[in-house]
Amino acid sequence: MRVLILILLSSQTQFTISSKLDLVYIDQPNEIINCFQLIDDVRENIATYNNETNKWLLKDGRQFIGGMCE
Description:
Distance between the termini: 9 Å
Number of helices: 1
Shape: globular
Mean pLDDT: 86
């Protein structure tokens, strides 16, 4: 089993080096073939792109920063 780790930023926070990031771990039952495509697919499903702020935002206000596979 592999794990997809999503990196999220709390709402109304400016992204800086010292920002506290939320990590969300999602178990993937199958072998991950393409981690980048999986991150894009998950982002499309959970976040909405905001043209004004140029950010991907979740419904709860958190900002989608990125992800990685482990």
